[in-house]
Amino acid sequence: MIDIQLRRRDDAAAERLTAFQERGADQEIHSTVGTAERGVEQGFGTAAEAVDTGFSVGRKLLDGLASGIGKLFSFFVPPPALTPDQAETALRVADEKQQQAADIIRVLR
Description:
By secondary structure, this protein is mainly α.
């Protein structure tokens, strides 16, 4: 009878030890998997940020290039013709500037 109880006690102790070791192994696996998942998520975040930054820089370069090309071509293209009202206003402004210049010359003499 005592032998049976001792065997049961030893078996129970062995089962507890096995369960404890399995629990430790499971925790280690979960920890390793969690670390790997976080690393992958951070890697994807870093890659996405790099792609966004690359596209942003590329967009700025292309915008600058397009602006420069636009300015280059606008240099060779004559401005549009003035409307009659704009021509009249430009003539009055030119007359006023000429009058002011003449007044300044008179004052300086």
